[in-house]
Amino acid sequence: MSNFKIKSVEEYNAAYQLSVEQPEAFWDHIASHYSWRKKWGKTLEWNFQEPNVKWFIDGKLNITENCLDRHIEQRGNKIALIWEPNDAKEKAVRYTYREVLKEVNKMANILRKLGVQKGDRVCIYLPMIPELTFSVLACARIGAIHSVVFAGFSANAVADRINDSGCKFVITSDGLNRGPKQIPVKAVVDEALVHCTTVEKILVVDRLGWPVNMEVGRDFWYHEELKNVNDQCEAVEMDSEDPLFILYTSGSTGKPKGVVHSCGGYMVYAGYSFSNVFQYNESDVYWCTADIGWITGHSYIVYGPLLMGATTLMFEGVPSYPDAGRFWQVIDKHSVNIFYTAPTAIRSLMAAGVDHVLAYSLHSLKALGSVGEPINEEAWHWYHTHVGKSKCPVVDTWWQTETGGIMISALAGISELKPAHAGLPLPGIQPILVDGDGKEITGNNVEGYLCIKFPWPSMIRTTYGDHERCRINYFATYPNLYFTGDGARRESNGMFRIIGRVDDVINVSGHRFGTAEIENAINQNKKVIESAVVGYPHDIKGQGIYAYVILNDYEENNNNQTRDEIIESVVEYIGRIAKPDKIQFVTGLPKTRSGKIMRRILRKVAEGEINSLGDTSTLLDPLVVEEIVTNRLTTSD
Ligand code: PRX
């Protein structure tokens, strides 16, 4: 099945060259490895002005037939999914491909029975339990569009996402386990639904055995519904360009965007990139520690691995529970061969001390991956030396929610590795660097804004309900280019090193937040007049959140109680994950005469670079900068 797997540098070079010179022939060949109900006609139609991108036009398929049905003959009894619970003492559960197919069919039949139809949007708000994977695939099976919302988001954030895409159905659970804590989940949905009008029914998975509020006629227990369905469900035929899912991500404006991915192109690229980057072999056990609430989980826990007939591990818990050796214990327990995690996790485990790693053998490991933010050299070396025992390649994979799959990365065991460098683009991906005017910067040892100049199958098609927003965000900054929002360097050997976001997006522990989004949440507090949020380097999280806040009564409210209340606002409006690390009360913000906040200055202060603030003479009130600098919060605050 995967004879599109590249096996040497020469094969990579040849594939890359073909993909640039004859992209359509290249992708035709890759796509032919999947099972299509009807073969596509034209391979590609595109322009980046509208934008309008279509791949494998008129092709018909169902992605779940590719993830499950087509494997049954050869891999029916192969383990598809290993589920490792939060509590190390609870039994892990293994599902074969045949069993996953049955579970997905049952879930799909329940959804159908409860009125979900092709094209309906289904919000999935679940913790990392097997039913999350089944729900995602069940939606895909019947052509419903899933919108998975990370279970750490607050009721307000859930409501916003449900309303934006007009979800008719929600799948959730009574509660969730997170390390030593048990946290309510259904109650959050109940709270969210006070602000939603489109949701008709809710399916509730019993994870904790908690009694929860169940509204008759609206709320249904999954385990009860299971009794009334069988395990056969014909997959719905989808057009290649039908939407497969929506996933919300933050941009530089206050409102998260619903990134829409299509069935055909996403499938082709998710499987292709998974197989090549990780060099998956038939008997490997693969573990990606992301949450399915983020794109990494979509593409590299669920779709990519299952498309390639892999054994994928899903973990309910956290790296620090019961202690900082949990990841390594799980690797030994399940003989994990390929391990994919985030720099923030590596840094926090590094801080916990190497003894936790040394307590385990980790001999099964063959390849390691990193994703979500730039990995610093120290963390890369620690990961390579102590986890990979200096024998496993570490692939630093650069990509985005919008790209659907890994774009720039080494191929494990094949490409040259350089710490903290994502490396070369995958075949089919044509990254370029441009200057502020959109002029291409050629040659090596150069730095610029990272853009992609040619379409690839899994690229964003639109932002749900607002195509213009998609155009403005990604295609209007530089004509005829997809703009990533990242800055990058191209080194002497053509390898890319990602520098980080150049827009008003902060990357906290590998999760994206718009500064405006956090400011909106802070401003909900009645004591706040205005706020400005910037990122600053944080040892563990990559970036921390630094908030400058103007209070309505500085003398009275300048205290820790107000700080706690502001944090509560953020927890309430977004979720715990977006909590500011530092809050500085200020009497003014550095603004230009036209009223624009000079974030550059605030960033420098947050970074502690107070001697290079640049020209402040054009500010409306240069004195506020002095005050901000004097009262700045340092690392120890
Ligand atoms: O800034 C880049 C950073 O994460 C952003 C995308 O975030 P998101 O859509 O949430 O997807 C994260 C998982 C794919 C990018 O614009 N980023 C992601 N991977 C890397 C990275 N920065 C540096 N190196 C990476 N490997």
Describe this protein's structure.
The protein is 32% helix and 24% strand. The chain is α/β, with parallel strands linked by helices. It has a domain at 509-630: ANL, C-terminal domain (GMP Synthetase, Chain A, domain 3, 2-Layer Sandwich), CATH 3.30.300. An eight-stranded mixed beta sheet has the order 12-11-8-6-7-14-15-24, with helices on both faces. Helix 6 crosses helix 7, helix 9 (263-278) crosses helix 10 (295-307) and helix 12 crosses helix 14 (377-387). It is globular, with a radius of gyration of 24 Å. The N and C termini lie far apart (56 Å). The structure holds adenosine-5'-monophosphate-propyl ester. Adenosine-5'-monophosphate-propyl ester binds next to helix 10, strand 20, strand 25 and strand 26.
Q: Hey, roughly how much beta strand do the residues contain?
A: 15-25%
Residue share in helix: 25-40%
Based on CA atoms alone, the radius of gyration comes out at: 24 Å
Give the CA-based shape. globular
CATH superfamily of the domain at 509-630: ANL, C-terminal domain
Number of continuous helical runs = 20
Average pLDDT? 96
Bound molecules: adenosine-5'-monophosphate-propyl ester
**What is the strand arrangement across the widest sheet?**
12-11-8-6-7-14-15-24
Shape-level CATH architecture of the domain at 509-630: 2-Layer Sandwich
Q: Describe the main β-sheet briefly.
A: 8 strands, mixed
- Please identify the structural class as seen in this structure: alpha/beta
Give the low-confidence spans.
none
What is the count of β-strands? 31
How far apart lie the N and C ends?
Answer: 56 Å
The CATH class assignment of the domain at 509-630 is Alpha Beta
In the CATH hierarchy, the third-tier topology of the domain at 509-630 is known as GMP Synthetase, Chain A, domain 3
